[in-house]
Amino acid sequence: MKQMIVHCSQHVTRMALLEKGRLVEYAAEREEQQGLVGSYYKGRVMNVLPGMQAAFVDIGQKKNAFLYVDDVLHPHLEKQPKVKPSIDTLLKPGQEIIVQVRREPRGNKGARVTTHYTLPGRWMVYMPFAEYVGVSKKIGRESERNRLKALAERLRKNEEGLIMRTVSEDELSEAVEGDLSLLRAQWERIMSCAQKAEAPALLHRDLSIVQRFIRDAFDPRLDELRIDSPQAVKEVEAFLSEMAPEGYKPVELYTGTEPIFAAYGVEEQLERGFSRKITLEGGGTLIWDEAEALTVIDVNTAQYTGGASLEETVTRTNLLAAEEIGRLIRLRDTGGIIIIDFIDMEREEHRKMVVSRLESIVNSDRTKTYILGWTRLGLLEMTRKKVRHDVLEFSTRPCECCGGTGRTPMWKQGRE
């Protein structure tokens, strides 16, 4: 069972997801800065750059959005030409185009957009022009995979594509069909808005963080949801009644005197989880350093001495570290290249045990994560897709003294 804890202040909503009391996901959103990912825009092509095989599209944001040629071609790989055409044969400056944001703007870069449209529902992801059916790889039973694939093939029309989500396992066909009807109606509303709007224009905004987490990571019939705002409770219950008409557990209004995040231990877990140095059970430590291009995690035995031999002590520490790293990557929403410097192990079977433990944890992560394996230097390399704003950037600010480096130059202190 999961617990979803939501704190609402005047302009900020903060959401924490707990599994067996442990914090596994955290998100925050300002009212005036709701994320763009998933939203649809009617944009205007401003520049087409054949040398980059990309175009820049005005969607009404501060920076023009980036559209790569692969995101203009047909979403079904088998429908794409064998030789990739130049983007200037596909798009022209001044052309109006409907795009969906797939990655948030960051720094000096605008949003990344695509014409491979998707609309996630409760049981499936709807793709109006993809022309294929997929089933989540996390559904292991072959009989259930075949059932869902046959059901999707029966339901889809013309060019539609459907991906059956993990939560659709063992779900009734009537519920899946109802979800598809809602998604089709949503797509029709987007197309209707596009016909009337003048570029650049917002056509459809994705759900708020609370609604998104309910849709993607919440079982309304089993999991608990507590919110400290009466207005937010009403809004969430209205969303649940539409998303889960068959019934859901009542949303609980928190009325305690202690702040809701403190009452459920969220604040304490956030402080620990977002620290640079994290102490593991038994005394081992992680040192977590994030740069713009990659994240580096160093594992140390520190004060952990349990084990009959050095190899056993090292392996136990690495196994504990792998489990905690898997959870913290999801909690911190770490994206891009991730390098983990585990403590050196002599035996290959122990290295396989560590990778297996890490894989078992990241398999529960909804964001695509790939463990690439050990480098020649003995480092574990992995990648995780990055689409939304960095949680750390939103929740913290760089130190005014050191500028975020963790070190203060001596000349700023008047010393040589």
TrEMBL record:
GO terms for cellular component: cytoplasm. GO terms for biological process: rRNA processing. Keywords: Hydrolase, Magnesium, Metal-binding, RNA-binding. Transmembrane segments: none annotated. It comes from the Bacteria. InterPro entries: NA-bd_OB-fold (IPR012340), RNA-bd_AU-1/RNase_E/G (IPR019307), RNase_E/G (IPR004659), S1_domain (IPR003029). GO terms for molecular function: hydrolase activity; metal ion binding; RNA binding; RNA nuclease activity. This is Ribonuclease. Pfam families: RNase_E_G. Residues 38-116 form the S1 motif domain.
